[in-house]
Specification:
The protein has one domain (about 5-105). Helices cover about 60% and strands about 10% of the residues. The chain contains six helices and three strands, in the order H-E-H-H-E-H-H-H-E.
Length: about 110
């Protein structure tokens, strides 16, 4: 048995704190759940801000959101952060016995 599975069986949770588009869209999160016993994920505005500034992966979604609702920059970042947490949580809910998003995701403001 893998050491991460041993930790899970002892009641410890292994969470990721770097939610990326690749993680969510490329199947990597599912692999981490299956192979590494990852049980949750978290993010915060600082990490998300870094992802926005250092990649072009969010450019289209941010432009669309700004055009759609014309909200300030902070709100756009927060809605992206929440969407990212929810997308990752949905993966956990499909492949675990968890019943609530609160069991598998968190974010800090």
């Amino acid at each position: 048995m893998k050491s991460t599975a041993n930790l899970r069986d002892l009641g410890q949770s292994l969470w990721l704190d770097n939610i990326t588009r690749n993680l969510l869209q490329g199947g990597l999160l599912r692999r981490y759940i299956d192979e590494l016993s990852v049980t949750g994920l978290t993010s915060n505005p600082t990490i998300f801000d870094h992802a926005i500034k250092n990649s072009s992966g969010y450019d289209v979604a941010i432009r669309e959101k700004l055009e759609e609702v014309r909200l300030n920059n902070w709100w756009v970042k927060m809605t992206g952060l929440l969407a990212r947490c929810e997308a990752g949580s949905q993966v956990f809910l499909r492949v675990t016995n968890f019943k609530s998003l609160r069991q598998v995701a968190s974010y800090a403001i």
